[in-house]
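Lab notebook, bench 4. The sequencing result for the construct came back, and we need a structural model before the next group meeting so we can plan mutations. Quick request posted to the team channel:

Model the 3D structure of this chain.
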Amino acid sequence: MALLELQGATKRYGALRVVDDLTMHVDAGEALGVVGPNGAGKTTALSLIAGDVPITGGHVWFDGRDITRMPAHARCRAGIGRTFQVPRPFLAMTVFENVLVGALHGRGTRSGASAAAVAALERARLLDRANVPAAQLTLLERKRLELARALVTSPRVVLLDETAGGLTEPEVAELLPTIRALKEAGTAVIWIEHVVHALLAVVDRIVAIDRGRKFAEGDPHEVMASEAVAEVYLGAMA
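Done. Here's the predicted structure in token form:
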């Protein structure tokens, strides 16, 4: 049984279908990459999983439970963590305080919140910046802070939205071991990314979507080398 599954998921805004009968899954300890052109519905699909936007049709399953109508905060406490494409820290707070907020609100208990924040910062490789105001962080450090705020809730699956986006090549190379370590520790990962070589270095499988629908799935290298993916990307650039 898959740890998490979108089953026939649809999201409409009026007549516009942003996600259209999308089915995809991730197993425990697996890293799934999601690719597609801008506007394909990738981030909306993550938002349906996290409960940040209401689903129009279909189902979301997690650990054998139908969580389609479960609110976002309950999904977080059940074990679904996420990051956002554009980091949104509390700039006046320190790095530690930012993660502590996630611990206090995302875990549903105050017990052990400080220790959890320290552990999350260590996993995100940001512990040495714990007392620095978030406003002083580099982009890479803000990406790490986004990850730490997701990890502090002890998720079983982490949803990553373009974590490598905007980073330099050396920064991407520096970030990859952190993401790879999540999978190696048994955390499932669903990762939307345009930096394809970063995905290929981590993920076990890739799903390609366009106009809200899945059109390719399988071995990462085979999917990215397929004519279907080339046609969609070349068409998007034309």
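The two ends are 41 Å apart (CA to CA).
Will bring this to the meeting.
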